[in-house]
Amino acid sequence: QLQLQESGPGLVKPSETLTLTCTVSGGFLSASRNYWGWIRQPPGRGLEWLGAITNSGNTYYNRFLNGRVTVSSETSDTQFTLTMVSVTAADTAIYYCARLWSYSDYADVWGQGTLVTVST
Amino acid sequence: QSVLTQPPSVSAAPGHSVTISCSGSASNIGSKFISWYQKLPGTAPKLIIFEDNKRPAGIPDRFSGSKSATSATLGITGLQTGDEADYYCGTWAVSLGHGVFGGGTKLTVL
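Predict the joint structure of the above. Result:
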């Protein structure tokens, strides 16, 4: 059974870089028809799609984040990473990684989420 | 402001039915599949409808999805107190080149 698990710092200082890793168990990033994404939920607000990477390495990003986000999977076939630069308090949120399906664009498997707080 | 528009809240009595709307445009709902998610406090979103009207295994048939032109609807019948949650629609926005969610609808089962 496919499972995803986010890991990373729970606290980041303003202007610094946030790096989160999603570890996939029971599957591989190279699986056909799947791509892998990051979604967040700030406190008291709705879901926000951040970025994703396909099994061939193509990436897609939320343009409203103004190029601050990068999704990569350079290190293994079971991990992918979210990097967000120049964080502010507005980036405080629960961050989720998820498996998505190409052409249908739905996320059927989610990690449990990790809370990231941006504060001094 | 979300690309997809949902009502902030809906409510109904136990046993009754409710619908939640999701309004978009030709470059998102009008040309791509819609999916729906149930979000309970402290838990990850749960997929309840995909490809407009399909239910994943384990999702009861009390949940249904439909789509017409640039709008989609989630229907829930036989409401239970356990259905109280936030519900989100999601799709791909062709003009933006990335995925998008609606602002979410809080369902209260009175």
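The mean pLDDT of chain B is 96.
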